[in-house]
Design a protein that fits this description.
Rossmann fold, 2 domains, alpha/beta, 8-stranded mixed sheet
């Protein structure tokens, strides 16, 4: 089976779908792996490393796409490249299924089986394939590091002959994968950390990391089967904002992590709330790519408000650490392939009755097959 990794062509993208160590494992399983020349350079992996791992280095992108049985990417495929894949082949990676109906239709029309990484079920069995979680871990870490670099003070408490420096106060909104990593990182750097989530069930996790869980009474709230927070009513949103505004006003760093897959990110911080924060404080909006949790956020920009608050809205902060982001992404890819790999036939048999495949398969055999996208 021929696997191909094309170079990511989005200007800000630094990751690569497979790193040399992952290539070595796939080659050992019997796969034929081809990498477009230069694909791993931004992540610190020159072509020579891929050659040593057993991959072929390809210069002709179009020809390689047409020859591949399985194409692995980080970002969604450019629309014009989907038709270059041969019928019956597979594709995987981030596909932004809610963002482009045309992309899904082109996969179906080309009779390509599209396995969408965002739709990998959030189950114990599929955890090792979960790209969203692995990348969110790094984004949570980078949110704290980025904020610390921009802050006009230090994070830990220091007792010196010149006096005592109080620790910085960090407020994390949303206690999912990114939020938990942000809490852990801020605590390791010595900050005093508070966190809020609409799901009371995460309070114990927050406390286990040494942070204080902020309680805001907004009434009945639950979570989805996938573990995400349920959408709030307008009345609940207002109560939540009033409670958060008080904590934000005393915080040096605020990190928002509330993404809603398939919908615009909810606004957590309004202009009024931001104006109540002290000059020089930092907000990092990890939902910037989805519209932002902060009313002032501009995606892929850093801005300073009239009141002196700095808002950082870089999309996919994990791109700032491409070596490890690529390592984790590649591990997810290899785990998906390895889970289904037929070692005798050296192929990826498509088990359409498997719950993991059913969960992430968008198109197959000329049709859109995922229930959420059929209509």
């Amino acid at each position: 089976m021929r696997l191909f990794v094309p170079k990511e062509i989005q200007s800000l993208e630094t990751r690569v779908a497979l790193v040399p160590a992952a290539v070595s494992k796939l080659v050992g399983m019997g796969a034929l792996v081809a990498i477009e020349s230069g694909s791993g350079m931004a992540a610190g992996h020159p072509d020579a490393d891929y050659l040593s791992a057993g991959a072929a280095i390809i210069a002709d992108r179009a020809a390689a796409l047409g020859d591949a049985d399985f194409v692995l990417r980080v970002l969604p495929a450019p629309l014009e490249e989907i038709a270059l894949q041969k019928p019956g082949s597979l594709a995987t990676g981030l596909m932004d299924p809610f963002g482009s109906r045309e992309r899904i239709e082109r996969y179906a029309n080309g009779r390509i089986t599209a396995l969408c990484s965002e739709l990998i079920p959030r189950s114990t069995l599929a955890q090792k394939m979960d790209v969203l979680s692995s990348q969110a871990n790094l984004a949570g870490y980078m949110a704290v590091v980025t904020a610390a670099d921009q802050l006009d003070s230090i994070l830990p408490m220091m007792m010196t002959p010149a006096g005592t420096i109080s620790p910085a106060k960090v407020f994390i909104l949303g206690v999912g994968v990114a939020g938990l990593q942000a809490i852990a990182t801020a605590r390791r750097l010595g900050a005093r950390v508070e966190a809020f989530d609409t799901r009371p069930v995460v309070e114990e996790q927050v406390k286990s990391l040494g942070a204080r869980f902020v309680k805001i009474d907004i009434g009945e709230v639950g979570q989805t089967e996938q573990g995400y927070a349920r959408e709030l009513t307008p009345e609940q949103v207002q109560k939540q904002r009033e409670g958060m505004a008080k904590v934000c006003a005393s915080s040096d760093i605020v990190i928002t992590t509330a993404k809603v897959f398939g919908r615009k990110a909810p606004i957590l911080l309004t202009r009024e709330m931001i104006s109540g924060m002290r000059p020089g404080s930092i907000i990092v909006d990890l939902a910037a790519e989805g519209g932002g949790n902060v009313e002032e956020t501009i995606v892929d920009r850093e801005i300073v408000t009239p009141s002196g608050v700095r808002i950082i809205g870089w999309a996919a902060l994990e791109r700032k650490v491409p070596r490890h982001a690529s390592q984790m992404f590649a591990a997810n890819m290899v785990n998906l392939i390895d889970h289904f790999w037929d070692r005798e036939a050296k192929t990826f048999p498509l088990k359409t009755d498997d719950e993991i495949i059913q969960g992430c398969m968008l198109t197959h055999d000329g049709h859109i097959v995922h229930d959420r996208f059929k209509a």
